[in-house]
Design a protein that fits this description.
Length: about 475
C-alpha cells in the first residue's frame, strides 16, 4: 500500500473509533444540558479541564514519547519504551497524591480533589496503553478501544445522571470508570505485562524526556489558549456564564474531532515517510495540506451558518444564547487544527522545542486579551475573540517557521480568501438577527462562496480518496476469492 493509501486506510479505521465515538459524545450535549444547570455544567467543565492541565505535568508528557519512540523500532526497544512510560507515569501519580492537601484548599475545586486526581491517573494509564497499541500499528484495535470507551461513558452518564441523579460527580465519575475499564481491556487483549522490562536504560529515558518535557509547556500553553478563558469567565462573570460558554465551545469541537482523527493518522504517515526524498516529502505535505484546509474551512463555514439551528437541536433552550459565540470559536478551532498540521513537521523533525516556542506567543496574547476583554462590556464575546486571535497567531508563526524544514506550498491565496468569507459570516451574526430571512440568505451565499474558493483542492482530495478507497475495496474482494 502506498503512502496515500496508508493514510486513507488509517484515517478510515480511526474514524470508526475516534470520530464515531466522539460524535456520540457530541450529540450527548443535549442530554447534559438537560440534566445539568449552566452553573453545574460550568463547574463540571472546570473539573475536567483542571485534570486535563495536570495530566502533562504528572506524566511529563511521556505518552507522546511512547508513541514517537515505539514506532519503527525493534520489539526489544519497544518494550523498553513502554516500560519507561509506565514507570514515569506511576512515579508522577505518587508525587501528585502528596499535593492533595494543597489542592484541597483551592476555591471551587477543592471539594473535588480526589475526583480530579482519579481522573488524571485513569486518563494517563489509558493514554499510555492506547498510544503504545497505536505505535504497534494496531490501528483497528486503537479505533475500537476508543469506541468502547465512549460507549461506556455514555451508558454510565445516563445511569449516573438520569437514574441516580448524581449531578457533577456522576458526570466526572463516568469518564474515570470508562478509562479504567478500557485500560484493563487493552492490558489483557495485548498481554501488555509481557512488554514490561525492569531495566529501560538511562539513555533511552533521557531521550524520551528530552522529547516530551518541552511538550509540557506546549500543552499547557495550548490549554491556556483554549481553557484559561473559562476560569476568567467563572471569576469575572460567574459559573452560569462559563456553562454557556462551555456549550458554545462544545458544539464547534466537532471540527476538533474531525481534525483530530485525521491528525492521528497523518502523524503515522508523516513519520513513516521520513525516508523518502525531500522533494517527495514536501509534495506529499502540500497535497494533503491543500485538501485539509479546504475541508476545515468549509466545515467551519457550515457550523457558522447553522449555529442557531445547531444550538436549538443540541442543547437545552436555557443555553440558546451560546450560538452567538460559536462562529468565532469555530474559526479558532480551525486555526488550532492548522497549527497542529504545522506541528507535525516538528514531530517528524523531533523539534519539540520549536513547538513550545510558538505556543508561548499564542498563550501570552491570549492571557493579555482575556484580562482586557472579559471584564469589559464584551464579556463572553471577549473570551471568544481572545481565543480566535491567539490561535491565529500561533498558526501564522508556525506557517512561516516550518518552511525552514520542509518545502511545501501553503496555499496562501485560498487561505486569505477563505478567511475573508469567514470574517463576513462572523460579522453577519453581530449585525443581523438570526430570525430574519436576510440572515439565512447571506449565510447561505457565504457558505456557497466558501465551497467555490476551495473547490479545486477539495475536489483533488475527494478524487484521491475515492481512488484509494476503490482500490482498497478491490483488494478486499480479491482477498475473499
Amino acid at each position: 500500500m502506498d503512502k496515500y493509501g496508508k493514510l486513507v486506510s488509517n484515517t478510515m479505521l480511526l474514524s470508526i473509533g475516534s470520530f464515531g465515538s466522539k460524535l456520540l459524545v457530541f450529540f450527548m450535549v443535549r442530554f447534559y444540558t438537560g440534566y445539568l444547570t449552566p452553573a453545574d455544567y460550568g463547574t463540571a467543565d472546570l473539573i475536567t479541564q483542571t485534570a486535563t492541565l495536570l495530566i502533562p505535568l504528572v506524566t511529563l508528557g511521556i505518552t507522546e514519547s511512547v508513541f514517537r519512540f515505539a514506532v519503527n523500532v525493534s520489539s526489544g526497544s519497544r518494550r523498553r519504551v513502554f516500560s519507561a512510560g509506565l514507570y514515569i507515569i506511576t512515579g508522577g501519580c505518587m508525587i501528585m497524591v502528596m499535593f492533595a492537601p494543597l489542592m484541597a484548599h483551592v476555591k471551587t475545586l477543592g471539594a473535588y480533589t480526589a475526583m480530579i486526581f482519579c481522573y488524571v491517573a485513569a486518563s494517563s494509564y489509558h493514554s499510555l496503553c492506547a498510544q503504545y497499541v497505536r505505535a504497534l500499528q494496531k490501528v483497528r484495535l486503537y479505533a475500537v478501544q476508543g469506541l468502547i470507551n465512549t460507549m461506556l461513558v455514555i451508558v454510565l452518564n445516563i445511569l449516573f445522571l438520569a437514574v441516580f441523579d448524581m449531578g457533577i460527580q456522576g458526570y466526572v465519575m463516568s469518564v474515570i470508570i470508562a478509562d479504567v475499564a478500557v485500560t484493563v481491556i487493552l492490558i489483557f487483549r495485548e498481554k501488555l505485562w509481557r512488554h514490561l522490562v525492569v531495566r529501560t536504560g538511562n539513555i533511552l529515558v533521557k531521550k524520551m524526556l528530552l522529547y516530551s518535557v518541552p511538550l509540557i509547556p506546549t500543552t499547557m500553553f495550548w490549554w491556556i489558549m483554549s481553557v484559561s478563558d473559562r476560569y476568567m469567565i467563572n471569576y469575572f462573570i460567574g459559573a452560569a456564564a462559563n456553562g454557556i460558554y462551555a456549550v458554545a465551545y462544545k458544539i464547534p469541537t466537532i471540527l476538533s474531532i474531525l481534525s483530530g482523527v485525521f491528525m492521528e493518522a497523518w502523524n503515522i504517515s508523516a513519520i513513516s515517510e521520513t525516508q523518502s526524498g525531500e522533494y517527495a516529502h514536501g509534495r506529499f505535505f502540500t497535497k494533503v495540506w491543500g485538501s485539509f484546509i479546504s475541508v476545515m474551512f468549509i466545515s467551519a463555514s457550515f457550523i457558522t451558518a447553522a449555529s442557531p439551528v445547531l444550538i436549538s437541536l443540541l442543547a437545552d433552550e436555557e443555553y440558546y444564547i451560546a450560538w452567538q459565540y460559536m462562529p468565532e470559536l469555530a474559526l479558532a478551532i480551525v486555526f488550532t487544527a492548522f497549527s497542529s498540521f504545522m506541528g507535525s513537521v516538528y514531530v517528524v523533525k523531533k523539534k519539540s522545542v520549536l513547538s513550545f516556542a510558538t505556543s508561548v506567543a499564542g498563550a501570552a496574547v491570549n492571557i493579555v486579551l482575556n484580562l482586557v476583554l472579559i471584564p469589559s462590556p464584551m464579556g463572553v464575546w471577549g473570551a471568544a475573540t481572545a481565543t480566535l486571535v491567539s490561535c491565529a497567531v500561533v498558526f501564522a508563526i508556525r506557517a512561516a517557521d516550518v518552511r525552514k524544514y520542509i518545502s511545501m506550498d501553503m496555499h496562501t491565496g485560498s487561505i486569505i480568501l477563505s478567511l475573508l468569507v469567514a470574517g463576513v459570516q462572523i460579522v453577519l451574526t453581530l449585525m443581523i438577527a438570526e430570525s430574519t430571512p436576510v440572515y439565512w440568505l447571506a449565510q447561505t451565499v457565504s457558505f456557497a462562496l466558501m465551497i467555490f474558493i476551495n473547490r479545486k483542492t477539495l475536489r483533488q482530495g475527494i478524487e484521491k480518496f475515492a481512488e484509494l478507497y476503490g482500490k482498497r475495496k478491490l483488494r478486499c474482494k480479491n482477498n475473499d476469492k
